[in-house]
Request: fold
Amino acid sequence: MMQQPYYAAQPYGQPYGQPVIWHGAPPPKQTLERHHRCNDICFSFLFFVHLGVIAYVTAKYVPLAINQEISIYNNNNNDNNSNNNANNNSSGEQIDNSSVHAILILIAIVGGITVLVSTLTMNILIYCAHGLITAALIFNIISFGLVATQGIIMGNPVVITLGAMMTLLAIWFACSVWIRIPFAAANLETATRAIRDNFGVTIFAYMSLIISFLWNVWFMVAFSSFIIVENSQYTNQNGSNDDAQVHQSQSPEFYLYLFLFSLSYYWTYQVIKNHVHVTVAGTVGTWWFLPQEAASCCSCAVCASFYRASTYSFGSICMGSLLVAIIQAMKEVLNYMRESDDGIILCLAQCCLSCIESIAEYFNQWAYVYVGLYGYNFLEAGQQVISLFTARGW
Reply:
């Protein structure tokens, strides 16, 4: 008895609309095997130790900074100003209350518009993926064509030449990838449909925004308090606030503190962002291989992926985030140094760090997909990414 033909995915180079047919049994169904083990534990421990250090700095320096600011305010205040402030106290409180109320209303409006735009964008990506990609390619050609037209109007040969070259390149690129638009649209539709079927992952995305905001507030309070106290201590020793600021901005200790605080800030920010990335990767992987476990808003796939990202894979998230944070902290120090000495060496160093940062972040995006899908540690995931790039000729 002849077996029924099996219709497979369309390979590259085969004309569209003609499915590939195998006469025989379909290929074995892929399964998703995850490693349930705690990876890179030392980096997760180091991350929590660093948060403890920030908490210690906050507890130690914030009260000192508040007392310092209160003493400065009292020293600069006189009885006449105190009386005027007392007379205007009620009106000032009304102004402050109305300002806070207006700010809260503005935040609520902006948040509502953001949710609405995000939902609308998601639906456009799901139902209009093909048209969206096509429109993007055409818009690219039109934009560069307008640049060339503007050069003709201005009579600028340089703008005309650059605009014409970029227009030709955009046309060549659109023609070369036009046949791949259905494939790209299918990938985009699949990705957005996976998120729509497991819309609960967006809850963790919005939670990460709230956590990032709280971290920004915490960090700024700790860092500014530290700077105020250190500046006050140097002023008490030398008697000049201006000299203290110059000393802080030029001393090696200041650059060390700037690097460490920047490292703390960027490391935590990267961990928050990459945690969401790993959660989404694990959820989409379960949706693809085991769709029956990822078919609702808050399915077990969403919760399980969040749990794995918060436990087994958290050390790997901290490790990869630390690598990028070190580069970003070095860039922050170089950027501060360039304010006083904008030399060619510092400029080249910052440019090199920017390139390394882009490569590291691109590599991390792929590595964290393997971390979320299969539970690899960061080094194993990196090896898988390199093997993928080598096999695909990237």
About this structure: Strands lie at 5-8, 20-23. Confidence is low (pLDDT under 50) at residues 1-28, 85-96. The chain has 13 helices and two strands. The first strand starts at residue 5 and ends at 8.
